[in-house]
Each structure stands twice: as C-alpha cells, then as structure tokens.
C-alpha cells in the first residue's frame, strides 16, 4: 500500500480504531505511548500524494478512543527519533 496507518484494537470490546492515517506516501516513523495519560503519539512523514514532503504529529487518546489532535510540523525542529536498536 502507498499509505501507512496505525490501528488500535481495544481488547475489552474488540473495537478497532484508526489512530493515525495521514494519507498516501506518509508513513509512521516514530510511535510512543505516554502511560501516565494513556496517549499514543505518532510521527508520520513522507511525500504527501507523492509530491510534497510533510511531517505530521498525531495525538490519540487511548482512554477516549479517539484522535484528539494532528498537526503539520517542520521536521527540522523535532527531536531525534528513538533508535531501532
């Protein structure tokens, strides 16, 4: 597929919800969970529609089971991603 998305499944109900899906050619590259607040944070970046580089930050509330914010940001102002090692 040309798009990347993150789905969340809630075991108590079996409900599946889309946590992040910013469009074609924009892929999740960093995913973090804040256990204290039960928020899932996703950084997604790539060539939106194959034309223009975009970086998005997405905030998904696991308790409320909904995306609460997504923002287009300048990639160069973000901290480094977690190492894969």
How would you describe this structure in keywords?
85 residues; mainly beta; 0% helix; two-stranded antiparallel sheet; four-stranded antiparallel β-sheet
Brief account:
By secondary structure, the protein is mostly beta strands. It has strands at residues 3-9, 16-24, 26-34, 39-48, 52-61, 66-73.
What do these coordinates show?
This protein has strands at residues 3-9, 16-24, 26-34, 39-48, 52-61, 66-73. The protein contains no helices and six strands. The two termini are 26 Å apart. With 85 residues, it is mostly beta strands. The protein has one domain. Strands 3-4-5-6 form a four-stranded antiparallel beta sheet, with no helix packed on it. The chain is globular, with a radius of gyration of 13 Å.
What's the number of domains? 1
- Topology pattern, helix = H, strand = E: EEEEEE
Shape assignment = globular
| Largest sheet entry | 4 strands, antiparallel
The class by helix and strand makeup works out as: mainly beta
Rounded mean pLDDT score: 90
β-strand amount: over 45%
Rg, Cα atoms, Å: 13 Å
| DSSP strand tally | 6
- Provide the low-confidence segments as ranges: none
**Largest beta sheet: strand ordering:** 3-4-5-6
Portion of residues in helices? Answer: under 10%
Count of individual helical segments = 0
Distance between the termini: 26 Å
